[in-house]
Specification:
About 60% of the residues lie in helices and about 5% in strands. It has eight helices and two strands; from the N terminus they run αααββααααα. The longest helix is centred in the middle third of the chain and has 16 residues. It is elongated, with a radius of gyration of 30 Å. The protein is mainly alpha-helical and about 140 residues long. It has a domain of about 90 residues: Orthogonal Bundle (434 Repressor (Amino-terminal Domain)). Strand 1 and strand 2 form a beta hairpin. It has a two-stranded antiparallel sheet.
Length: about 140
């Protein structure tokens, strides 16, 4: 049973994953797409086992791009491996990640004076206003 060699991008991804200290399962979970541990392994190995033997496997561009992102394989490295298609997808993933910057906090809708009054009101409520604890229940019943 001949085993096809892994494609260059698969070898680069496997090497980078090992260098990161990630298991196949951890890398697959971190991919951000639906990829099983078994499929990740098949792509890294360059083959899948089928009845009658092993068949060569080449990951789709988006799958390779997401795998590369997890293990920090650059778009340039993917291009060196002959996967310009996956490199383009990875560049888009990276561009989108850069755009997901946390927006600045919303401005305070209150003026400084409104803020001061609100804070004084809250402090007064927390400190209590001298009423007995049962007063609230009496008012709720309609009795004073």
């Amino acid at each position: 049973m001949d085993t096809p060699p892994p494609p260059p991008e698969a070898a680069a991804i496997r090497l980078a994953r090992k260098a990161e200290g990630l298991s196949v399962a951890a890398a697959a979970r971190a991919a951000g797409i639906r990829i099983s541990t078994a499929r990740w392994s098949q792509i890294e190995n360059g083959y899948e086992t089928r009845p009658g033997g092993r068949r060569a496997v080449r990951g789709r561009d988006q799958t390779i791009a997401h795998m590369a992102r997890v293990v920090d394989v650059s778009p340039e490295r993917l291009e060196e491996c002959g996967r310009a298609d996956a490199a383009a997808v990875l560049r888009e993933i990276q561009r989108r990640q850069r755009m997901k910057v946390t927006p600045p906090p919303a401005p305070d809708p209150l003026t400084p004076e409104e803020r001061r009054i609100t804070e004084e009101f809250v402090r007064a409520i927390r400190a209590g206003d001298g009423r007995q604890q049962g007063d609230e229940e009496e008012r709720a019943d309609g009795t004073a």
